[in-house]
Batch of 4 targets.
Target 1
Amino acid sequence: MTTQLTRPAATRPTPVAPRRPVRRRRRPNVYRSLNTLLVVVIVIVQVYPLLWLFLTSVRTEHDFTTGNPFALPSSFTLDNYARAFGTGNLGLNILNSFIVTMGANILIVFLGMMAAYAIQVLGFRLGKLVRGLFLIGIIVPVQIALVPLFIDYSSVNLLDTYQSMIIPLAGFALPMSVYLFSSFFEYIPRETYEAASLDGAGPYRIFGQITFPLSVNTIVTVVLVNSIFIWNDFIFANTFVLSDGLKTIPLGLQNYIGAMGKVDWTATFAAVCVTITPLLLVFLVLNKAMRYGLESGATKG
């Protein structure tokens, strides 16, 4: 007699109610709050002088001299801009600054790229030593070159010319330019140059068709960084320029000082607003390219 074994009926698992996620209260991030506060303070410190400069440029002269110079203007006028162009040669000063800035930037970019290309890409035995010598030039103060340059310029009849300002401005900005370009060239893959060499390209063709197109953002960075200092340069222009026809913007602002040292402040602020507007517009337009150019030498990509 056989016994038949029966399997127990399959039991369904009892559904388990899902647990509600426990909401944890987020603790205030102290570091994030401090970073936000720091950014706000920096923005205020940077933006407030520009805002105050613009507001002062549209105030009447009586309102500025008799009231609180840091208060909001009680009346607005555009006569200050008319006086700014009428009192001094503001248009000519802007043109001279533009010529000097463009000429110096052309030399800085051309010589800086060629030097960095020779040191970093072509390479030679003492390349690192030459690059170190260029970097030493960053710590050299410009004041030590004023007297020797003045003597040399006077002997070769270069005083009171555009070249007397362009040459030293480009020379003292060249070390930083070489450093930025060489840092960028360091992260261009060597295989790119080797493939171009196998195709029969020489060093000049490689520079023109490969290196130069890849360096556009770095060029923008070098031009913007140096343009700020060249546009606002006073020491070289004040030393080597003797006539009113070649005065740049920093020298032209001295025309607003009248007899007995009286300064037409509202017209001066209007002139400053006109002179800084081109740099602000260019910086805002090319800001992204400048950031990429600064970061390209720090990260490999």
Target 2
Amino acid sequence: MKNIDVCLSPDLLHLHKINNSIVVVTDIFRATSCMVTGFAYGVKSIIPVASVEECKTLQNMGYVAAAERDAQKVEGFDLDNSPFSYMDERLIGGKIAMTTTNGTLSISKAKTDAVKVIVGAFLNLAAVVNHLKNQPYDVLVLCAGWKGRPNLEDTLFAGAVVDALKDEYFVAEDSAILAMRTYQQAKNDMLGYLANSSHIRRLQGLGINKDISYCLQNDLYDVLPVLRGNELVIH
């Protein structure tokens, strides 16, 4: 039977064999929520890069560039890390280069060995789950976390995926069980469950409350970003 597992931080990815796995990268607050939103609003492609320098190089080549560090926009770039910034009609058909503190780094770490890398958020949860139901490979949900540490919101998303696929996949590892049980506890009031989490406090300190509520909504969009080469596109 196929296995589904959860990696709670990209710093733990080396402990997982992913050469027969589809890796679902999630960074709920806010990189993967931005990516899903951008594609839903007509963005053509997104190149995720690990460093600000790589993003600046692509910006100089003509890409719209989004750069975030410590939950704030990096000076000199076009877009920040709010999903509402990706609803701009000027981005329709556009190509975006993106770097974030955690999410794009996680994609960079996963892409070398994974069978396929897809992007997941609560905003496209059903699209992720429906795609994985028909795949012959194992699944690893990679939580972007925060600077190497696990975080609660990404763990909840991982748990939602495991919970939805527990009849199709074997749930063997404690990290997957932990994520699933945490989600089952939290699913009826995720905002309340996350009220004291570190990243919510961080975002609230920056006055970004509307992003928090938006990113916790289920299935606003039926889009599935998939990495092809170095570029995310719609599956």
Target 3
Amino acid sequence: MGAGAGGGGVVDAELMVAEARKAFFTMFAFMAVVWLVQLANWGDGYALSRQYGIVSGQAGRLPDVLTAPLLHWSWAHIESNSGPLFVFGFLAAYRGVVRFLGLSLLVAVVSGLAVWIFQGGGTDTVGASGLIFGYFGYVVVRGLFDRHLIDTLIGVVMAASFAYLVTIAVPGTPGVSWLAHLGGLVGGVAGAWIFRDRRPRPAVSSGGTGTGGGAIVPSRGTPASGDRADLHKELGDLGLL
């Protein structure tokens, strides 16, 4: 293994750790805001939820698609949303906080519009569950669009572990806004495509002699090619090889 290849792996791993650290603090700050809003909302008898929730068909309430995800109807409501919101939000953000902010805006708008256009009965809808479903959809398919094998594996694990979430994004689920969930899921999958990594993947070159330096090999272990070489490189960047 040449020194250049090893140095690149160290740099990639450091960048990934730095992004993960930023993602953690971003989600910590976001959760703090959501809970502070809940405290103010509770202290005012949930007037904020009534004033800034999404009410379908009312043009004056259309901007509330951006405020509704920050609001909840009870302590049980925010408690049930907080764990999934932090976990899926962190997994969505660790590849880049700027991309994550764009994704959050997209998911909030698509989820909110689904409620504003299709929800009947003038129901006032609030809650972060649309964001949760958006982040979930994004995490599940992001690896496929970015061609990151580690992210693909994470997506498979999340899909297998939380497949039950899809059952509350279909019509007929009592007591929840399935439209917000379905809209968030659609927004998350769309975001994975819109914000996909368009940079060309760098080849892992041997840096050796005799064959012109064009062969693809992993940083350690036996030679590999194609997807296997990508997997070796990503595992090496994470310090797992």
Target 4
Amino acid sequence: MPVQIPDDGDFASFKEQCENHDGWAARYNKGGVTVWCRDEDSRGVQKLKMKIACKDVTAETLYDVLHDTSYRKKWDTNMIDTFDIGRLTVNADVGYYSWRCPSPLKNRDFVTMRSWLPLGDDYLIINYSVKHPQYPPKKDYVRAVSLLTGYLIQSNGPNCSTLYYLTQVDPKGSLPKWVVNRASQFVAPKAMKKIYKACQKYPEWKRKHNPNLKPWMYPEQNTLPCINVADLTVQRADSLENIDESGVNEEKSHHHSDDEDET
């Protein structure tokens, strides 16, 4: 399937999915974080949606933090690696991301096309998985598939904002049910709180690390090589190897701590 760069209609549809809770079941609501789930019958892949109120963080800061891959290496302790591969347009690029799964599950990675759009008091970032000829699946990772993942940031005043995170990912591999449940009950709320804390520390960090470098806002600063959209195809889940991890026992699994080194 050819890759389509999202248009205004795609961003509007994503925003509507974030704001409209019809058909969603709330699974968690505590400490300013809400998590909803929705099972998509057609694909058998669960959708997760999260919302967090950020009372002392501007929408602009949230937007910067979610774009800044240099800073992500500071706060995203589940991440193994991330880097930008190349740019498609002034507001679309292709990137790589890998993250740790609880042992003995295999670690996962993605290649995604990301697109972003500032809309007045709203900021949107969305992605889905693509195939890039120079970044095929790796031997030691399971290549997961983002069907649709993204953020909606809404400004609620001069120093107050709301962050929505919506994701529909096929992790590949027949994962045990406890992994899926743990994602909505534990991993997702923790991830949202981690982003919030990272945003609180970002202005001070950014002042010391290329404070004027924001290529997501100033395209003329972007030094990534150009990619032709025709060289990309949509990454379909059914074309990837399926790993059966359904027998992994929760008691035997190892959940790394936030400050544990990569294993």
